[in-house]
Description:
The protein is an all-alpha fold and 143 residues long. The protein has helices at residues 10-31, 37-68, 78-82, 84-89, 96-129, 133-137.
Amino acid sequence: MFAGLPGIGVGTLFYVLMALWMPLWEIPRVIRRTSSLARWRLIAQQLLYASGIIVTVMFAERLLLWILGQSKVAPFSPAALLHAELGARASASILAAPIAASILLLAGLLVAVELLRLVLKYAQPRARQRRPLNDALDPSPPS
């Protein structure tokens, strides 16, 4: 069983992306004047946590490279698979492949959730056409 690298999994990636999305989501409320200082405190706190995660992962990568004595690491990224020149310009990070895998897994998961949401949305009108359970138990005919 492979446990993965801490801080770059799907859950952490989702958390960081949502924390970065929070200020953008709050801007319409500022325009409508329904935002509050408490909401912005929460957003600032989440942004602080997310930036802490990003800095910690970057620091851990650099520390690991220093311990291994490697200053230049050949990147393994989806960009290298698409085009050699694009791959040469890709980030020289040992975490590029795991992060790319997390991004692809998260994207697949979000697409699956949205597809399931659409299936359930279009399945509900058929369920509404049936008589409710209380009506089925009532022997009196509908008026």
